[in-house]
Write a structure and sequence with these properties.
Blueprint (H helix, E strand, L loop, with lengths): L1 H4 L13 H22 L3 H12 L9 H13 L3 H13 L3 H13 L3 H12 L7 H16 L4 H11 L7 H21 L26 H16 L1
Helix pairs in contact: 2-3, 3-4, 3-5, 4-5, 5-6, 6-7, 7-8, 8-9, 9-10
């Protein structure tokens, strides 16, 4: 269902996994309607999911930052870590970088795996002529390791390969990178709705929910096979 309908990973907590049945039976429209219903009833995680989807550029390639903030602000202020995570990214796109940093820090301190990873991203992207923040980002990455985020090794390899945390670490980054990718891909394939594989995809420009379902691997293989036979006649 994830590969068919979504352009990326999505965190759905265990208590909300029933919405995946709506996705299976009714597709993305039914899935979104169920999230809207739950959000209206006060569900913090459903509001966070909708907020995340709003932050991914739509068909017009624009992020609906205002909607994401509206959906997540109250839940974030109430201490929900998922809502804080999405709210922090919404604040980034709204130009509120200081508040975004503090909000992501709160989500990180609560142990929310995606926040432990992206807090290091916030630190890494902070300009500092003395290179203090890259080293702080590397130190903060231990939190992502501790809570078991499957992309932590990828981030570590990226930091090492940049050379900003020491030239000695650079070859180690290249050496471990394939292991980091494999570790993450296996975990994502096993459960693409887990918080331990969920990352905010800031560079994605396609709508998160696909307009047309992507064919399964077997369907794509069968289609290509038929096309090849047709051309061979």
């Amino acid at each position: 269902m994830w590969r068919t309908h979504f352009n990326g990973v999505l965190y759905v907590p265990e208590q909300g996994r029933h919405v995946l049945e709506s996705l299976r039976l009714g597709g993305p429209i039914r899935f979104t309607e169920e999230l809207e219903r739950l959000s209206t009833l006060g569900s913090s995680w459903a509001s966070a999911v909708l907020g995340y989807i709003a932050l991914v550029p739509g068909p017009d390639r624009k992020r609906n930052t205002d909607r994401a903030i509206e959906l997540c602000r109250n839940h974030a202020h109430a201490g929900d870590s998922y809502a804080q995570f999405v709210y922090a990214w919404a604040l980034v796109f709204a130009g509120e970088s200081n508040l975004a940093y503090e909000t992501m820090k709160k989500a990180m301190l609560s142990g929310f795996p995606p926040a432990t990873l992206d807090f290091t991203t916030f630190l890494w992207n902070t300009a500092d002529t003395k290179q203090r923040y890259p080293l702080l980002a590397l130190k903060a990455l231990r939190n992502a390791d501790r809570v078991g985020h499957k992309a932590a090794l990828q981030w570590r390899c990226f930091f090492y390969r940049s050379g900003r945390v020491g030239i000695v670490r650079r070859p180690i980054g290249y050496l471990l990178a394939p292991i980091g990718w494999l570790r993450y891909l296996v975990a994502m394939w096993r459960d693409p709705f887990s918080c331990r594989v969920f990352v905010f995809q800031a560079k994605v420009i396609a709508p998160f929910i696909r307009q047309e379902p992507r064919p399964s691997f077997l369907q794509a293989f069968a289609h290509n096979f038929r096309e090849a036979r047709t051309r061979g006649r």
